[in-house]
Predict the structure.
Amino acid sequence: MRPLLLLNMTLLIALAAPLCEAREPVKAAHGHKAVAGLSRTAQAKTLNRNVVRLHQPATRPLQAGVHDSRRATNSRVVARARQLVGIPYRRGGTSVSSGFDCSGLLVYLFRTEAGMKVPRTTGEMIQKGGQRVGRDQLKPGDAVFFNRNGRGNVSHVGLYIGNDQFIHAPSSGGRIRQDSLANSYWERSFTTARRFNG
């Protein structure tokens, strides 16, 4: 009985061996396809990393950005002018250490805070300066010009800071200060205004 059992077992092993061998290459082939598939996926991911994407156009128009930039620059000019209140007046002065005259103050503010070169004297600022603006169109950062009590040539300039207020270096012996355009003297003396920064 044992020999018969051994014979059956041998026969089963002999028949099963070719089947196993036949299945093995199929498994290997599927395994190779899977590896190849993974390899292609990995390659695709690598290739996708190297794809150059063009920048999308700006969502806001350029003009809006320009206006924002000008507004920020004018805010810096006004903020710096506020810090200089109390600095002594000095004829011909254009620096914190020496003091300022009226036009020297504006030259300093626009040079240091806006990176702009504005004309040195009040007359040149009016003739060669920026856009002319009316009293009702004033914005912070505009230059406001005055004559003497409504008479004579323009001889004084200040920086408009909003709410009918301006900062200026008034006269010999004085200091940089803030005044109101609604004050009767400055209201009579107001002549014109210029916008240097847009």
Q: What stands out?
A: The longest strand covers residues 151-162. Residues 55 and 129 are 38 Å apart (CA to CA). Residues 19-39, 41-64 have pLDDT under 50 and may be disordered.
